[in-house]
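Quick note —
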Amino acid sequence: MTVRTVFAKLGTLRFDFGPACVGMFATFPQAVAYGLIALYPLGPEWASFGIAASIGCAILFGIVSGFFGPNRFLVSGPRAVTALIIASAIHIALHRGSSPQEALVIAFVAVFGAGLFQMIAGTLRFGHAVSYVPDPVLSGFVNASAILVILGTVPTALGSTAPSIAGLIESHDSNILTFALVVSSMTVLGHFALGKRIRFMPAATCGLIVGMAVYYIGVSLFPLAKAPLVGVIEISSLWHKPILFDLPAVLNTLTGNLDIALTSALTIGLLTSFDTVISSRAIDARVGHHSNVNAELRLHGVLNAAMGFIGFLPGSGALSRSLAIVDAGARTRAANAGTAILFALSLIVFAPVVAALPLWATAGMLIAIALQAIDRATVDKAWKLATKRLPYPRVILGDVLIGIFVVSVALVFDLAIAVCAGVLVSVVLFVLGMSKSPVRRSYRGSRVHSRILRNATSIQWLEQEGDRIGIIELQGALFFGSCANLRTEAIHLLENGVDYLILDFRHATSIDSTGAATLRALHLQCAKAGKQLFVSHIEPERRNRTLQTKTRNPDHPSSHRHGKARPRWIWLTLDANGVIQALGKENFFDDTDTALGHCEELLLQRFGGKLRNNKRSLFANSLLLKGMTRAQISILGRTTKRQRFAKGDVIFAQDDECDRAYFLVSGRVDVLIDVPGTGRKKRINTFSEGTMFGEFAVLDGAPRSATIVAATDALCLSIERTEFAALRDTHQDVATILLLNLSKVFAGRLRLANTMMSELEQ
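Predicted structure written out below.
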């Protein structure tokens, strides 16, 4: 590291000093309050011990997690909810007849056990479960935390001795001081008014200075009531013999009280883990980083085990303090660790100033910080809904309602319960949203044909009987919540004349066992009624599982495309549920066009008795020869050339010289076009017997626009461009009728294409 780098890093630290001061001031009242809460059942004589236990956690836990925690802005320390659990454990132990010292041992064994729980949770990667917490629930958690801080601080800001607003209302406490309200209000006002104008001083410090000035000027000039002060905190009380050092005494104390320790340990472990992980996620969302929550859990587990052994309160991520340093402009983890370091130094250096801080002013500071922590995006969304400023309010209605629900549950019950309830509601809403119909659309084969261009007679029969073919396009997830819609649509088609049903999975994303059972039930229903079910756009899984794990050799085929390709989960789900075997692999098609062409063949075969497919009928029913006399057909026949092609032969290639047109007497040919930049070809059409192709040769002579390959053995009649020109000179009547019929063929193809396009765009 160069000297310049060192000075650059030291220069950056000055930007973190202000945020660290904000975190220090935010830690003061909370550390004192949580210590008093935790040991409240032991009586006022244990108050100093409780404050020392809370301060010790804020300093030791804060410094270690600040320097080594994965989330550089997550300020950690004592929390109100865990202080309440410790107080509850002490109260139960005292009720059973334990002494204060024994009750303390039980409580700190619970803290030690909570640390072990967190280490296990982090090792097993349970922290990733928070990734499933939706953003509206996370916003509700942040807002609820801020509101709870405000509600818990309001009695102190009003100068009341009540522990909460509920206690204030129930006791009809009239000891609400106007002067206390003025001091706390001026602190909040100074925080927001001066914090934006005075760049070199944190907003919280500005607010505290204003509040202290108002308080001391008031009590100096007027006979006003005096506020309780933070008071002197003895640093020497932090150094004491570890509570759990005497192992035999600890084991003796746990006899008959192990249930209290285990229950409290599990509760503290769950709450601190949850608090840490979700607070870390909230900070990551605010600063745009991604931290390892499992590593954070493991570190906090080690620290909490140490806290329990020493005799300090448990620690976890503190969202309000973390947001305070982030909003104050923290740039590095120095602001995080500096919060605990400045807190420790302030107890020594600034002890007189700290002792002189009125709790009314510190209460105002906490209220201001909590107000600043409220998620502005959620408030903005709620305001737009209330004022009807959005043309489509439903796009944010669900998010706002979930956020309000989480806040409401948190106020009535607990933050952990609120988040769990919010996640549950989000899951229910998601399932309901996904339960919309999986049927994207459905249509009949009379409107949309396959890309097989057939003779006029076949097209006529397909238009008349095409309604016997039904296609259902699926979308999204086909699961237990949406299968009923598919079943209803399929039964409707089958009961209204559809004999061949195609399920198009092109836009489907997943399927569960209920969806597989629905397909199997539809297949059985079709088979029972003499109908057939086909499936398209489901890629089969042809690989063995061993192929994916067989070798790590990069030259092995499993390390290339097939090995790295994602499994075909829809196919695997259908296979595991017996659907592939029930339907038969022959009824699964790569695309809907192929499936539709297969159904058209089946439909035409059913009317084989009505169709005369011999060569005489083929020429007689050809649109190309319509209106010609036998003599004219004979003249045209002498001009053409018979050509046979075996399956796979290239009749002509794309960009070849255009010199000959073809009439397909028997067999089929595929129309292929080059896919630019890939070296591959794509089939766009298939011509069947009785159709003409390459006819542009007799019109413009431009290069071939596609490649024609024989899909089966084929027999063609062809006419060269020069021969057609000669025919036009010697037998103008034949050439005129031929050109007129070609125009009609083009018009029919264009009309059919327009119909299919309009149908597919619906």
